[in-house]
Structures are given as structure tokens and as C-alpha cells.
Amino acid sequence: MEILLLLILAFIFAVVYFARGSGAFKTPAVSPISKQTLSAFEVAPSLWVTASEAAFFGVLVRHMPRGFHVHGKVRLEDIIRVRRDVTGEARWKLRGRVKSRHVDYLITDRAGRPVLAIELDGSAHDPKKPPESDRVKTALCQAVDLRLLRIRVGEDFDHIAATIGSQLRPS
């Protein structure tokens, strides 16, 4: 009787163990995309959402010293990555904090290293009570020691861009 009970318990243990799989996190699969789904996409008419974004980009480019480059709408995931020693499901969860966010402008040096991230804050941004998304972006940049400059729409773009350009030194 005891042997039968042990065999039943061993069988139940084996079923539970193998039914749960290896337990290792698996990267989500990417499914094929149909022509019908593809037909729902189009090229955006402009990278810039507002006239202020376009205007500041033009002024910023004009004041960039040689060896520095201005990029627009750069995904945070392209400039802030999850450390390589973080793996599995934890890695994917942390990627979610950066993958759907961007900075309005990114200045890089000749080697492509991020030097300065810039956010252009319109009238909807209250500097005294920033939205959680702004606080998260600011905290992420601080955590990786990437300077983030917030500029309010209506400020003197030419003066600000000239100041930024004069402060950049080639490495």
C-alpha cells in the first residue's frame, strides 16, 4: 500500500513538473504581417508634430558646432538600454519602461555617443506639476547620467540653441 501511495505521489509530481514546462522565459514571438494589415500604415507627413518642434530643430542645427549632430524623435530604447546582466522576463519588463518613449531631440558627438537630450515642453506641460511620463523620462536620464534639458515653447529658441552650441566641446 505504501509503495502504491509513493508511486501515485511520484506520478502527480512528474505530471506537475512537466506540465509547467522548463520555466525559462521565452522571448515573445513575432507573427507574420498580412497585406491587409500593411495597408493600414502610411508615412507620416512630418517628423515634427508642431511648428515649434520644426522651428527649434532648424535653429538647433544652425548652432551645432562641427562634430556634433542633432537627431529628432529618438527612442529612449536606442539611447538608454537595460544592463546586459539583467536577463529573462525582468529584461523585457524593464524594456517596457523605455521602448515606447522618445526624446524630442538628441545631440550626439562624432562617435554617436549621446551628449544631451532635449524635450520641448508646450503649454500642456506644467513645470510645477509635470505628468508622470515626464518624471519617468527625467528619472531615466538622471539614472544613466544623460543630461536632459527641458525647454518651454515661447522661450528664445535662438538664444538657447546658441548657448547649447557654445557649451559643446569635442571629446
Task: Provide tags for this entry.
171 residues, alpha+beta, Endonuclease, Chain A, 4-stranded mixed β-sheet, 4 strands, elongated
Describe it.
This protein is an alpha+beta fold and 171 residues long. The protein has a domain of 117 residues: Endonuclease, Chain A (3-Layer(aba) Sandwich), CATH 3.40.960. Helices cover 40% and strands 16% of the residues. The protein has 7 helices and 4 strands. Strands 1-2-3-4 form a 4-stranded mixed sheet, with helices on both faces. Helix 3 runs parallel beside helix 7. The longest helix is centred in the first third of the chain and has 18 residues. The protein is elongated, with a radius of gyration of 25 Å. The termini are far apart. The mean pLDDT is 88.
H/E topology pattern? HHHEHHEEHEH
Quick one: overall form?
Answer: elongated
- The radius of gyration is 25 Å
What is the SS-derived class? alpha+beta
User: Do you know the CATH topology of the domain at 51-167?
Assistant: Endonuclease, Chain A
Q: Stretches where pLDDT falls below 50 for ≥5 residues?
A: none
Total helical elements: 7
Q: What is the percentage of strand-forming residues? A: 15-25%
Regarding CATH, which class of the domain at 51-167?
Alpha Beta
pLDDT averaged residue by residue: 88
Return the CATH architecture of the domain at 51-167: 3-Layer(aba) Sandwich
Helix coverage percent: 40-55%
Largest sheet: 4 strands, mixed
Brief description of this entry?
With 171 residues, this protein is α+β, with helices and mostly antiparallel strands. The protein contains seven helices and four strands.
